[in-house]
Write a structure and sequence with these properties.
Elements: H1 20-28, H2 53-61, E1 78-82, E2 91-95, E3 101-104, E4 111-120, E5 126-132, E6 137-142, E7 149-152, E8 157-160
């Protein structure tokens, strides 16, 4: 599973939007007001371990129901890479919660990340935009906030590196 990013209260399917599709998902688990342990995917939106009315209060307090994700950052550091295609070819992306990091987009040049954000894209995907100290921007897409791969603007997949 990917790093925990963009905690959108009420977003149980990790598409970056709290909407009716999240209700459909959580009620399929049938844990509402049962007292059984629940995860975010199962309706625990306030982090107390169960799905009850307090989760609805928490989710709706944010005022984001039905609103597309406009910007967020990773809650923990994440690293993506892609297999090298030659001796001097390297593909690496490291992002920190404070907006910093490093990207090596191929070849032997590394860029210092000065900022990045994840936002909803028009096609229903999520867009990761990485800005560097040279003013260069790199764009990636991902299917969900828990995706283990991102795809750069040229169609190459970069895979999440999971620390064990």
């Amino acid at each position: 599973m990917a790093a925990d990013i963009c905690n959108v209260a009420g977003d149980s399917n990790f598409d970056g939007v709290f909407d009716s599709s999240d209700f459909v998902q959580v009620f399929q688990f049938a844990k509402y007001e049962t007292g059984e342990t629940a995860t975010v995917e199962e309706g625990d939106w306030n982090g107390d371990g169960v799905f009850d009315s307090s989760d609805f209060v928490h989710a709706f307090e944010g005022g984001a129901y039905g609103q597309p994700l406009t910007s967020c950052r990773f809650a923990e550091s994440v690293t993506y890479d892609r297999p090298s295609e030659g001796v001097l070819s390297s593909f690496y992306l490291d992002l920190q919660p404070d907006g910093s990091g490093t990207i090596v987009p191929g070849g032997d040049i590394a860029y210092r990340v000065t900022d990045y954000s994840v936002a909803s894209a028009e096609d229903g995907m999520l867009s990761l935009t990485v800005s560097t100290h040279f003013g260069t921007k790199f764009r990636f897409t991902m299917e969900s906030l828990r995706a283990t791969t991102i795809v750069n603007e040229w169609g190459s997949e970069w895979t999440l590196v999971v620390d064990e």
